[in-house]
Amino acid sequence: MPLPKTFVKDFHDEESCARMEYRPFGKTGLEVSVISLGGGTFSHLYGDIDEKEAIATIRQALKSGINYLDTAPFYGQGKSEEIYGKALKGIPREAYYIATKIGRYELEPKNMFDFSAKKTRESVEKSLKLLGLDYVDVIQIHDIEFAPNLDIVLNETLPEVEAIVKEGKAKFIGVTGYPLKTLKEFILAAPNRLDMVLSYARHTLFDKSFTEYLPFFDEQNLGIVCASGHGLGLLTNDGPQEWHPGLQDVKDLCKKAASLCKDANIDLAKLAMYHFTSLEGPSTFLSGMRTRKQLDTNLAAFADGLNKKEQEMLKQLKETVFTTSLNWEGGEVERYWAEMKKKKQQNSKA
Which residues belong to any copy of the NADP-dependent oxidoreductase domain (predicted)? Predict the structure, then answer.
């Protein structure tokens, strides 16, 4: 493979970069690595974080040819951005692209979302400070399905992000969310104002729905980020965190797959990553990797594929476990608004 524009001699491992694939990122002019590094796992959302190992993982990912990084204020209330900031010190700015987000912030429901222009501005300034950067390549409006309505995002959030881009603090604008239908609705309501789109856990062993929307995203000339092929930890031998929003039937199915893999001494996460990256169309496949071992596993799944035993297990899982397409769309949003209603009632009685 040809070396990317982000290649920096004496920093990158040239052989690793030559093995990596780079794809156009919509109409942005960027060429991004087919494997990209997610920042959600660089926070306590996924348990205690070994900061030293996280920093080493980020730096190793960059040296190995990964050039697209993703983070958000919500990931540990800035912890992920802080870790990225430490890891990126001394690394040439031209060696990577980095995306952060606005809109989703804290774990407490009443402070979780804020799509106001004021908060958007404050968030970007804080992100730049934590990252130690003058600009980010992409600002994404985070999980738009939780906004009271899309008009707020369209008429307040997006114009403020556009102003921030004009000031040079970001280059491109994106939108993220879980419900693909909502993403399509927003993109249609903001023609030619968005540069990229991200949805997560929608092209996995248990959910095939991402393929239905790929043609639309491609027609809009967007950079397409297909994220979390492990389903936020569902498709791992250890299983997900307690907060996972998935419905029980999805969790039970993935638990069954994990049990089969553990009995066969096979890493379900590797199988999931191989399946994840096999989809034609997305610009990049975003995956959280907390350790260099996870990084090596994911890079090997893409570059080297599976051995015969792993191939047989993946075939078995597709034929006997993951026979339908399942998701948890709507459930997390409903729980959020139910919690907000409950708190409002409690406050009115106080």
Answer: 35-318
